[in-house]
Please model this.
Amino acid sequence: MRHRKIVILMIMSLCLLGCQSIKNTPKTETIRYTENQKSRLATVIFQEFASKNGLLSTNLTNRKNEYLAESMGLLMLYFIQTNDKTNYMKSFQAVKQSLILPNHLISWEIKEGKRSDTNALIDDLRLIKALDLGARKWGNKEVKQLLSKTIDANKAYTMYEDYFVDFGSEQSENRAKEITLSYATPSYYKRMKLTPEILEKNVEVIQNAPQDANGLYAKKFDIQTKTYQFDDTVHMIDQLLTARNVQEIKSTSKFHQLLKEKMKKDGKLYGQYNRKTLQPVVRYESPAVYSYAIFYSQTVKDKTLEKAINKRMNQLKNHHKNTQYYGSYIAKNGETHIFDNLLPLLTKGGWVR
Model:
């Protein structure tokens, strides 16, 4: 009898573990995008990155079975940009069945078949934008419902002391206590149905973002101490996104001048720089960096800079017509990142407002 009880307890324990695993592992239906794209780059993305769950692989080598919410936000914006309702709804279903957490925050990553139970503010805000634009454009009731639930969830769980923070939690003590400035986008905040006082409080974080002597921006704002933090090494994607955020409110002329000087002197932009010396600390160039630089150039209406950056980005593209990856930013050995392909895709139509 005692042996039987032990067996039953073991079975119950296994069931509980299994239920927890099932909770974090989304059940998915097969989703396939229509590949009759005018863009060769879009065709390659669907052929090489799109998985049967409708999500996009992070890369084609060691992260082929990892999926990021950020990729789906960008993909949905592309479908809005190209007026592609059919594929937009497919991408919407992929997000809904694989990335939405029980509390209606958006899981930032699926890895090893398991969905993270944590969100990232920037991913949620970008997807909220894509849902909002899609709902306005096509009036789909299901899209509107998810939009409303995701907005409410972020206001409930991804704010600390009335500030948006990097990631959320249902428990206030487990939320981030800081906001990365590249996340703090005023136009995104305006979609969140905030009170005027809370909206102003959050916009002031980016409005007051300090710059160093070279024109580079702080990385984060600490909500508890109300102070800004600089990193010794700056990532250009962070800097470009922060500059675009600031530009929504006021001039970014000092950063603009720095960007022009770097392109004029080097003819290229590197992925990371030493903040004090302005020397590159990596040798790689990234189409994602160039894409955000193009979006920034469009924001400040500098067509000369935009043309120079676009020319350099185009030189990184695969121009070999008889190869599998022709028209993309995938190396011969398959090395790439999904962002280095999605973001250049979006530059062709300008950033979606």
About this structure: Residues 5-22 have pLDDT under 50 and may be disordered.
